[in-house]
Every structure is written in C-alpha cells, then in structure tokens.
C-alpha cells in the first residue's frame, strides 16, 4: 500500500454510519492518515460535524448533506453545517437539479460540492460546469462516477459537457467501489474502458480514492482490498501516480491550508423530528436487513474485535456465534439465531 493514504470519501453519523471515534479507529487500523467524513444520506447528525471540526481538524474534514422536508429547511440545514465547519455538501443528482440555492451557498463560500453522479448526464455535467464558471473558488468532487460497459461512442455518457467537466481543473473524481461492482466478476473488466477514459481526461493529479466506510463492511469488504482493487484497475499508473491517487491529491486539496472556521450551532427542533433513526442496514448486499440498534452493537463489537485487528471481514465476525457452535458440536446453526435477532 502507499506510504500515505487519505480517504476522500468515508461516512460517519449516528446511528446508521457510526461515531467519530469508530471512524478514527478504522483509520488507525488501515494507516489512513486523513479522511473526508461525509454524512450519510438522511442521517442529519450535525453535531458530529462540530465535534470533528473542533477536535480533529488536521485529521478529519467534514461534508454535510441537505436535509429537511421543505426547501427552506434544507437551505437552513446547509447554512448550519457550513457554519459548523463543513468543507462542503454532498448532493444527489436530484438535489443539484432541484436546489440551485444550495449550489449557490456552496459556491459563494468557496467550498466543495460532493456531486454524486455529476457525470451521469450531459445536462447535469453542464449545470456543474456553469457553477464552476460562476464561482471560481469552488471545487467539485465526484464520488460514485464509475460506469460499467462504457463506450466512448455513447453521446449520453461521453464527450460534450461530460468530457469538459472531467477535464476541468477544479473537478476531482473519487474512485469508490459502487454497488454495481459488487455484482461484477473479478477483476471487474467491465469497468476497464471507463477507467481508461478517466485517466485520459483527469490524469493522476485529479483522481482520489475513497473507501465508503462503513458501507464497505456491509458489502463484506475491507479498506486494504478496496485500495488493492483500484491499484489493479489503474495498472497503467506508476507508483508515483498511484501515490497521488491514494493519498497525496486528497491530502493537498482537503487538508492543505486552514480548516473552515467552526462555530457552535443550535440545532432546530425539526431536525430531530424528521430524523428517521429506525432505518435498517442492508448487508451483503441486500441479503439481510439488520435493525440499526443491533447494527450499532455489531459495528462497535467488530471494531474492537480480533477479527477487525486481523483484517478479517465483518461477515466472519457476525457468523462467529454459529461457527463456534458448529465447531463445538452443539446443535445446528439456526439454534443461535436469537443471539443476534437478525430480521430477514
């Protein structure tokens, strides 16, 4: 692995995506020096942004999310998170289309838009190009921008505004293993054409690596394997170029210079009223739906376990009670289901 790793796309936020302390322990285990921690969708744990921004500004930088049932509430939430010290805001394609006011807020402060699917369509790419032109201090990071079975001859996915955006000096692609890759066969040859296109347009100096912690655990993966997979896909890169992608680029872009000022914020009552705290967590992928309260105990136990320390998967840790029971010769696997109370 590279000598210095910066994770450009991790998640945090209780209860679904874990605590700041759990994120830091994950980073320590995998020798990740710095990470951009992004609130997960529909998890408005705004307090964790204030905690990270005030306590670990040299190690963790934060990205918030739009949240709220009304446009006014989503604008209020974005302002609150930027004031709390977030370096930017994560935007789904629909949010970027429907809420230009949020892009304006990000742009006026010279912060980052984390544009999910920003290369998904020519229309969305054009919108981001116009935004970058309007706000010369703003920057765009693009997690989840990988495509399988890509063709340069497809006018909806190549050339035009998409190519212009990917060539833009303030566009940064983040290589994150998406859900589609989980179903593709190793070594993920369906993504080779897209990776070649990305390297041609962005070069090694505008690409970054992201783990999507802790979602990679839900897919029965770990950070070492996620890094190694992209190193293989980017076989055309030499070691210096790969070190840029795996660490140096994100460290320079997100951590060089002072962190945004963080001020204590009073959270509106409507945030907690709309917070869906009882959502389940999908595992392996979508094979199990685990109640979030149980998942919280599993994540904490796993991170403290020898399984995590040895680089073994969360699936092995979850199956531990059944494996031990079978090894001891006591009963069938189904006999210990009550220990975890997992709901299918």
TrEMBL record:
Pfam name, any one: Amidohydro_2
InterPro entries: Amidohydro-rel, Metal_Hydrolase
Amidohydrolase-related domain span: 6-251
Name of protein: Amidohydrolase family protein
């Amino acid at each position: 692995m590279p000598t210095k790793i910066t994770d450009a796309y991790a998640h945090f936020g209780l209860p679904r995506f874990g605590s700041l302390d759990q994120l830091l322990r994950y980073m320590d285990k995998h020798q990740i020096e710095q990470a951009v921690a992004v609130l997960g969708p529909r998890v408005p744990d705004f307090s964790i942004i204030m905690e990270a921004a005030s306590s670990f500004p040299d190690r963790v930088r934060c990205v918030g999310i739009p949240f709220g049932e009304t446009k006014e509430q989503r604008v209020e939430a974005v302002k609150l998170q930027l004031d709390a010290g977030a370096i930017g805001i994560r935007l789904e394609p629909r949010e970027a289309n429907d809420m230009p006011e949020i892009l304006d807020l990000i742009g006026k402060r010279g912060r980052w838009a984390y544009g999910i699917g920003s290369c998904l369509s020519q229309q969305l790419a054009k919108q981001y190009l116009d935004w970058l032109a309007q706000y010369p201090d703003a920057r765009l990071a693009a997690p989840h921008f990988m495509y399988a079975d890509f063709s340069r001859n497809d006018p909806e996915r190549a050339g035009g505004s998409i190519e212009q955006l990917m060539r833009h000096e303030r566009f940064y692609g983040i290589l994150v293993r998406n859900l589609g890759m989980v179903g593709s066969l190793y070594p993920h040859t369906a993504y080779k054409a897209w990776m070649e296109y990305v390297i041609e347009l962005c070069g090694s100096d505008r690409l970054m690596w992201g783990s999507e912690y802790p979602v990679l655990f839900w897919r029965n993966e770990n950070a070492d394997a996620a890094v190694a997979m992209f190193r293989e896909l980017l076989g055309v890169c030499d070691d210096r170029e790969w070190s840029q992608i795996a660490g140096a680029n994100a460290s320079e872009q997100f951590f060089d210079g002072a962190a945004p000022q963080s001020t204590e914020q009073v959270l509106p009552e409507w945030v907690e009223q709309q917070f869906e705290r009882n959502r389940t967590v999908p595992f392996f992928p979508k094979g199990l739906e685990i109640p979030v309260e149980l998942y919280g105990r599993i994540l904490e136990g796993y991170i403290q376990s020898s399984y995590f320390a040895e680089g073994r998967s969360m699936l092995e840790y979850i199956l531990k009670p059944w494996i031990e029971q079978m090894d001891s010769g006591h009963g069938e696997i189904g006999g210990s289901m009550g220990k975890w109370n997992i709901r299918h």
